[in-house]
Write a structure and sequence with these properties.
AAA_GajA/Old/RecF-like; Endonuclease GajA/Old nuclease/RecF-like AAA domain-containing protein; 2 strands; single chain; alpha+beta
Length: 45
């Protein structure tokens, strides 16, 4: 399953995440949406 994100909260550039993987690493500057994205994926499962 893949999750496509665009213009969602601080995640303005968009992208795709492959949710079939068991381990994720989110890297970026402060305020770029790493925690926002982690919480989104957590709430989905």
């Amino acid at each position: 399953m893949k999750l496509k994100i665009k213009n969602f909260g601080p995640l303005t550039k968009g992208g795709t995440i492959d949710l079939d993987k068991r381990f994720y690493v989110f890297v970026g500057k402060n305020g770029s949406g790493k925690t926002y994205l982690a919480n989104l994926v957590y709430e989905m499962f």
